[in-house]
Amino acid sequence: MIAQTYSRVIPAPVRARIDSRVLITPRGVQIALGGFWLLAGLLQFQSYMYSSAFLTQVIEPSAAGSPSFIGGPILTFAHFYGHDLALWNTLAAELQCALGLGLILSKKTVRATLLVSFLWAFWVWWMGEGFATVFSPTPVSPLMGAPGAVLLYGLIGLLVWPTSREPECSAADAGPLGDRGGCVVWSLLWVEAAYLWLLHVDRTQNAVGDQLRMMASGSPHVLASWENSVAGVTQGHGEAIAIVLAIVSFGIAAGVWTRAREIVLLASILLSLAYWVLGQSLGGPFWIGSATDVNSGPLLVLLALALISQPRLKLRARREPASNVNRPQPAADG
Prior knowledge:
The protein is mainly alpha-helical. It has one domain. Helices cover 59% and strands 5% of the residues. The chain has 14 helices and two strands; from the N terminus they run H-E-H-H-H-H-H-H-H-H-H-H-H-H-H-E. It has a two-stranded antiparallel sheet. Helix 5 (85-105) packs antiparallel against helix 6 and helix 10 (207-216) runs antiparallel to helix 11. 38% of the residues are buried.
């Protein structure tokens, strides 16, 4: 529509082409996603991942409280994985590094890499995170990282799957779901966040404070002091805070369908970063070697950036000779 408007304004003798470009490109999102996959793979090489504690403290607890058809396969997988922990953990780490490099180094490998990443993300979301314990009596709250970083890896990859389409308003616009499909994915994620905040387990008077204190117990001194300070302020106000955050989450889910879309997405970035710093301790305890990824905060930021409308119009004009029909004819002699 914008291009058509410009074409009517530009004089006929001037041949112009107007290209719509976005500052945040699908390729840029692919590279950023590759960086997250590469970091996850490098973290998998930590010595903690080669110990039995990785099974008993990370994988097996994700089955606790889940229905048997979810928790049973997790426990079976943990038992199998533990038989040759060094081998399977090394292969898992190498695969994730390969996914990261496949997205970063070449456009030619993006399709195959994303396809493998979808399968791996689903496997890890189930076997490693128990579907973020959504089906358990005590699901992880949005503050702590719900719905799980690995699910976001897959969803972002789907939004920027390479197609022949050129993005006209957002990076996701060039993907198979288009800009509208990306907004649907976004809304579903934030409606789920609102739902989780309204659950009783996240609405108790001290729920928010307890979660912050739990993360502070393994954080460096400066970060722990921030988390404990915020936990003290929230003490006894957990229900009110949960209700407010549920309303905010609903607003973020609905706001992408309004004219305030960019403002809503920027607000969601700030909220996601606040979750990441305080409730997720900058991605988990990197400092004690047990983090498997950066947690969901940065992934939600990347998803928001992929949806921000940011058209950039570039007018490139080339003057051509007018046609003989429009060229003035010389006066006749005599």
